[in-house]
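Quarterly update, task 2.4: zinc ion-bound model.
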Amino acid sequence: MAEKVCGIDFEEYLEKAESFHGTAAPGMIAGAYMIDYATSLLPQGDLYDVVCESGHCLPDAVQLLTPCTVGNGWLRIVPTTRYALTIYNKYNGEGVRVFIDHEKIEKYTAARSWFYRDIPKEQQSLEDIIHDLRRAGHDLYGVQRVVVKIQHPHNENERHAESKICSGCREVFKSMGEQLCPACSGAVYYEQMKPDTA
Ligand SMILES: [Zn+2]
């Protein structure tokens, strides 16, 4: 059984995961092994970006174990709902994609029930799941060599954008020629509780 994951003692990682993420959730542990696996297949010393395909746990494992965060733009979430992540060279896009292999997880009963969520969470043993993930190490995952096609779309877009006052909400947004910000164009995620008094 692997004593270390991403160069950290396993027990110590559990503690770090708990304080950073709230709990040492199975996804944090699977995520650590996925990062460990991917980085073991990549040359050391290059600069990497990461894409997570699930917003559950995986991004926190990346943010805890690598210099890549959502805030610095080196971690992006492309939500395909697959439990996978890609670590790739930020200059040429070449990298490794790691995903949970449904055939390999069959022999790890507790990890399997966590992954498929086919048993109510209260009936699952967190201890058994962690034990499975730990003894599996890299064995639960499949890998693909990939080239990430889109480099820094966020930065690329902002470079061509102009700061403009939205004709709807009167807040400043990054415009590619539009008069209305994305929120006023329909992508608003909240309802205002009181009418504007200003
Ligand atoms: Zn607006």
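Highlight for this quarter: The mean pLDDT is 91.
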